[in-house]
Amino acid sequence: MKIKTERLANVLMKELNDIIINKLRDKEIKNTNITYVKLVDDLSYAKVYCSNINADNTDKAVMDLNKARHFIKSELCKRKLDIRIVPHLEFVKDESIEYGLKIEKIIKEKINN
């Protein structure tokens, strides 16, 4: 990503976390954290990676976030962001944490054997 794209991705991540905590009413979604935002270079599309405190609820939370994406996008439009058009948002489950835990478990098993 370019520097401008990375900067905007970080701003979007901060704003999305704030919207989830302060504007959404669903308690299951409030436990969701945005971990990474990947923007395309023309800033028209953003893939938003998220994880949930309760790993069992992550899939439902991602589905609910995708249903609420229009509301979230309208909330982003109300904020003073340095972009002309707010990108289309797609929320996906961040599996990197689970993957890291799996690798850590494998390494510990190898060390103990």
Brief rundown of the structure:
This protein has 113 residues and is an alpha+beta fold.
Topology record:
Elements: H1 3-22, H2 27-30, E1 32-39, E2 45-52, H3 58-67, H4 69-78, E3 88-93, H5 96-112
Core attributes:
113 residues; 54% helix; 19% strand; GMP Synthetase, Chain A, domain 3; globular; three-stranded mixed β-sheet
Descriptive overview:
By secondary structure, the protein is α+β, with helices and mostly antiparallel strands. The chain contains five helices and three strands, in the order H-H-E-E-H-H-E-H. The chain has one domain: K homology (KH) domain (GMP Synthetase, Chain A, domain 3, 2-Layer Sandwich), CATH 3.30.300.20. It has helices at 3-22, 27-30, 58-67, 69-78, 96-112; strands at 32-39, 45-52, 88-93. Strands 1-2-3 form a three-stranded mixed sheet. A hairpin with a 5-residue loop joins strand 1 (32-39) and strand 2 (45-52). The radius of gyration is 16 Å and the shape is globular. 24% of the residues are buried. The model has no long low-confidence stretch (mean pLDDT 88).
